[in-house]
Write a structure and sequence with these properties.
alpha/beta; Glutamyl-tRNA Synthetase, domain 3; Ribosomal Protein L25, Chain P; 14 helices; 26% helix; binds adenosine-5'-triphosphate; binds magnesium ion
Length: 587
């Protein structure tokens, strides 16, 4: 990842998007002293998914473009669903993406909203004393039953309770004197607002539960709308970027900070004014064939439909990492899809393409055969093994060549042979000739079959004049090149092939339940045979990052953490081309 720091900011290469335009106007106006400070504020109630990656790259990228800072802040205001495991995984994922929050020029720091509970509570008391908040004894059900309609206002019988009485009750709530759900603190805003979020929203609820950070200190927990702007304010965030669902919460974001600031100033009893950041919304990332909801992903894990949050089929950042995706390719994808205010669904193929594009540049090539078929070369000099020089990476001339053993007994891909081929099948068939990558041309002379009529061995001849795979002097042509390994030299390895986790472009659209569109066969495990150099290369690879390679013609593969010394396991990251679309059409 050392190359990351040298990566130029991609923002320089294109016109500024709408968020950049807003920030540039703020900078020009001298707002916040020319500072840019962004944050990524996850709730630690699950692992991060690719939608979060979009938000992380966006926020970090803005800080980088404008020489600003970037915070990671846990919005840990809900004790029931939050766990240390999630906190740890999120820190790791954000760093892995290369969006460092505690090191480097953009380092703004790591924060926990739960560390602000005391400060937030003091501001809440202040609003009570200013007559801007009150303790309400309606249950959650009653509040929603009395929320009114667009034509009729909400009803809140406690909103004219004297501030002193609300203050006394609030303190008793904090002290633990009241059970869950018996009381809330509500903001006194506007019961008739056409925006229902402003109809005296709840600021605090009572939850007697252990919190992963504050333990048993609190039984009063702040609601998102009350807490979020205050968290941003405390950290000096300038641009608080969130997804479009929060657009009609923005008046509330501003109302709370304005309410605290009312009457504040240099000589005020309340103290100085607090920082007021700017909330801006953008369209969330949606992908075809993908579900992005921590709640749903948690269900997949709990019901063991996948092998964990980091199952390579999961759309989580840890799943992509385990599968072998590079952080560079995820960043490139996020940059490529851009930033808008229009909701849309992006073709998941674009993410796969970003991955291919990066791996094409960096991944060394090897040969491996997934479903072997034996080839015996009848005219090969008995007992001879030739070392064939194979190019490591055609995209990188500096990567050089390696020697691959070639002998009279080879393995090729079963699919590369057809006994009665259709017209446009140019690979191996009885009587047909094909090029073996970097080696020789071979011609199939006869087929040996098992009792069920399946080919088990092809008898072939080779042409010594085609050494290196080159055209022979007589002007003969072949149309196809196939990969191969030498049967006696090949190593057996486990290979895991993945299909999409969902069969439907929009999972759940048909029946309303995304589970109904789960692909029942999204994992295939094979024993493949690979050239010896690959097994050796993998044994020397660093263990914290997978080794990423191309199996010629089959795709890009990465070593799985389940690998053991001498027994590598390969995950297919992505095929070389978008085969899936073609197969769907055929089927
Ligand atoms: P989910 O609904 O999947 O559980 P969430 O929005 O509840 O996600 P948070 O932890 O609250 O998860 O999200 C942290 C940040 O990530 C928020 O600022 C949110 O706007 C952003 N985010 C979440 N999903 C997406 C997405 N699909 N595209 C872009 N940003 C997203
Ligand atoms: Mg959320």
């Amino acid at each position: 990842m050392s190359a990351d720091t040298a990566e130029p900011s991609p923002a320089a290469a294109r016109p500024p998007h709408f968020l950049e335009q807003i920030i540039e106007a703020d900078l020009q106006a001298g707002r916040w002293g020319g500072r840019v400070h962004t944050r990524f504020p996850p709730e630690p109630n699950g692992y991060l998914h690719i939608g979060h990656a979009k938000s992380i790259c966006l926020n970090f990228g803005l800080a980088r473009t404008y020489g600003g800072r970037f915070n990671l802040r846990f919005d840990d205001t809900n004790p029931a669903k939050e766990e240390q495991e999630y906190v740890d995984s999120i820190c790791r994922d954000v760093k892995w993406l290369g969006c460092d929050y505690d090191e480097g020029p953009q380092a703004g720091g790591l924060f926990f909203a739960s560390n602000y509970f005391e400060q937030m509570y003091r501001w809440a008391e202040e609003l009570v004393r200013k007559g801007k908040a009150y303790v309400c004894e309606l249950s959650a059900e009653e509040v929603s039953a009395k929320r009114g309609t667009p034509q009729t206002p909400a009803i809140s019988p406690f909103r004219d309770r004297p501030p002193d009485e609300s203050l006394r009750l609030l303190r008793a709530m904090r002290a633990g004197a009241h059970p869950n759900g018996s009381m809330t603190l509500r903001a006194r805003i506007d019961l008739a607002s056409p925006n229902f979020n402003l109809r005296d929203p709840v600021m605090y609820r009572i939850v007697h539960e252990h919190h992963h950070n504050t333990g048993g200190d609190w039984c009063l927990y702040p609601m998102y709308d009350w807490a979020h702007g205050l968290e941003d304010s405390i950290e000096g965030i300038t641009h608080s970027i969130c997804t479009l669902e929060f657009e009609n919460h923005r008046p509330l974001y501003d109302w709370f900070i304005d309410a605290i600031n009312e009457g504040r100033g240099p000589d005020s009893e309340w103290g100085p004014r607090i920082h007021h950041p700017r909330q801006i919304e953008f369209a969330r990332l949606n992908l075809t064939y993908t579900v992005m909801s921590k709640r749903f992903l948690l269900r997949l894990v709990r019901e063991a439909r996948v092998k964990g949050w980091d199952d390579p089929r999961m759309p989580t950042i840890s799943g992509f990492r385990r599968r072998g995706y590079t952080p560079e390719s995820i960043r490139a994808f996020c940059e490529d899809v851009g930033v808008t205010r229009q909701n849309s669904v992006i073709d998941v193929g674009r993410l796969e393409n970003a991955c291919r594009e990066h791996l094409n540049r960096i991944a060394p090539r090897y040969m491996g055969v997934l479903r072997p078929l034996e080839v015996v070369i009848d005219n090969w000099p008995a007992g001879t093994v030739e070392q064939i020089a194979c190019v490591n990476n055609p995209e990188d001339p500096g990567a050089g060549t390696r020697d691959v053993p070639f002998s009279g007994k080879l393995l090729i891909e079963r699919d590369d042979f057809m006994e009665s081929p259709p017209k446009k099948f140019f690979r191996l068939a009885p009587g047909a000739e094909v090029r073996l990558r970097y080696a020789y041309w071979i011609r199939c002379v006869s087929v040996e079959k098992d009792g069920a009529g399946n080919p088990v061995r092809l008898r072939c001849t080779y042409d010594p004049a085609t050494r290196g795979g080159n055209d022979p002097p007589d002007g003969r042509k072949v149309k196809a090149t196939i990969h191969w390994v030498s049967a006696d030299h090949a190593r057996e390895v486990e290979v895991r092939l993945f299909d999409r986790l969902f069969n439907a472009e929009q999972p759940g659209a048909r029946t309303g339940d995304q589970f109904d569109d789960l692909n029942p066969s999204s994992l295939e495990v094979l024993r493949a045979r690979v050239e010896p150099a690959l097994a050796e290369a993998v044994n020397t690879a660093r263990s914290d990052e997978p080794a990423r390679v191309q199996f010629e013609r089959l795709g890009y593969f990465a070593t799985d953490p389940d690998s053991r010394p001498g027994a590598p396991i390969f995950n297919r990251i992505v095929t070389l081309k978008d085969l899936w679309v073609k197969e769907q059409k055929r089927g």
